[in-house]
Automatic annotation (TrEMBL):
Pfam families: DndB (PF14072)
NCBIfam families linked to this entry: DGQHR (TIGR03187), DNA_S_dndB (TIGR03233)
InterPro entries cross-referenced by the UniProt entry: DGQHR-contain_dom, DNA_S_mod_DndB
Gene: dndB
The name this protein goes by in its record: DNA sulfur modification protein DndB
Domain of life: Bacteria
Length: 369
């Protein structure tokens, strides 16, 4: 891109671009150096009413993670294109000799024009943060799709249309495809190799249909492993050994899981009649396991303390679950419900509650939970 060229009407931005047509309207695709993104695409953070905005409010809490993603993965980060509207004249000059007819060329935009990001304001802000820490990223590029600004109503409609059919991938498939996270790799290996989970884990969806032959979802196993290893400083190989040993020991205390593998019970029947294969129970077991691992000076000492898990009545019909793991007859995995389920298991194993857990328990007993 060349900025600052003079013409008979003043200064212009010049973008190399390819021209296309959607719904009878021209649009242009260009590659912009990252260092120019924060300078051209200014984000108006003034508090204005939603009805006169064409963007959502910037969620600054998302920016550190997005910025770190770029900085921590300089050789293989991926950012999709920004979509922007130009409030000003756009003049396209084709390069016919390029062999692409009239589509390739450049667009000229007056410097007085305003650029509005219709989709990608968080990516734009994350790029700005990353450039402050690593200016060398400025020579890299990102695709930008330019539309002509046809007014506030059109910009708001574009935002709605761009996000209308956006579907966030399931947490399970995110774990399945994540090659950077050691815990995701551990969970995948556990799901594919462990005798506890092999062929019993739904690898793509984060929910199970009533007829699914799987007992667990990959996202539920991953969350349970996160809870199990929370705050534990372990090498990857050690974590693999601990996690596998933990779930194999738990498996021996929950006979229904083995009955599904032996086909004396079906997975749909177990999920319907018990809660121990649901995400909330796995997460709670993981948190209890974390407490036992932390309290055990000798690694093998946690196993005898977990034996009382076999005495827990996991049946949905157990009235103790109502208000804890079950709300109105349905299993709930809210933060409060997870904590109350952890409390129940801690009591069953003779473990003391943390202050936070005790507050949740007190609220539950008062009927506030």
């Amino acid at each position: 891109m060349v900025a600052g060229e003079t013409t008979s009407v003043g200064f212009e931005y010049v973008f190399p671009a390819i021209r296309g047509v959607q719904a009878g309207r021209e649009f242009f695709v260009s590659m912009c150096p990252l260092r120019l993104i924060p300078k051209i695409f200014l984000f108006d953070e003034d508090e204005i009413a939603p009805e006169v905005r064409a963007q959502r409010v910037l969620n600054k809490g998302r920016l550190p993670a997005l910025s770190r993603y770029i900085l921590d993965n300089p050789d293989d980060y991926v950012f999709s294109a920004l979509t922007a509207s130009i409030d000003g004249d756009i003049r396209f000059e084709s390069i016919a000799e390029a062999g692409t007819g009239m589509r390739a060329g450049q667009i000229r935009v007056p410097m007085a024009a305003r650029f509005l990001i219709n989709d990608g304001q968080h990516r734009r802000a994350a790029i700005e943060l990353a450039l402050r820490e690593n200016p060398d990223l400025g020579d890299e590029t990102i695709a930008v799709v330019f539309f002509h600004d046809a007014g506030l109503a059109r910009s708001q409609q574009m935002f709605a249309d761009l996000n209308r059919h956006a579907v966030r991938p399931s947490r399970s498939i995110g774990v399945l495809y994540d090659q950077r996270d050691d815990l995701a790799s551990l969970t995948r290996l556990l799901a594919m190799k462990s005798p506890v989970f092999k062929q019993q884990v739904e690898m793509e969806s984060s929910t199970l249909s009533a007829r699914s032959r799987k007992l667990f979802t990959l996202s539920a196993v991953h969350s349970a492993n996160q809870a199990l290893l929370q705050g534990m400083q372990m090498e990857k190989e050690q974590a693999d050994v601990v996690v596998q040993a933990f779930w194999e020991h738990v498996d021996g205390l929950i006979p229904e899981w083995d009955m599904v593998r032996k086909r004396t019970l079906t997975a749909p029947d177990v999920r319907r009649d018990y809660i121990h294969s649901h995400g909330i129970a796995l997460h709670a077991i993981g948190r209890v396991g974390n407490a036992l691992l932390r309290d055990s000076v000798v690694p093998s000492k946690w196993k005898p303390r977990l034996v009382k898990l076999s005495s827990v009545d996991w049946a949905r019909s157990n009235p103790d679950w109502e208000g804890r793991a079950i709300i109105g007859g349905r299993v709930s995995k809210s933060h409060t419900q997870v904590t109350l389920t952890v409390n129940y298991l801690r009591r069953a194993l003779g473990l003391r509650l943390s202050p936070e857990e005790q507050r949740a328990e007190d609220a539950y007993k008062r009927g506030d939970a």
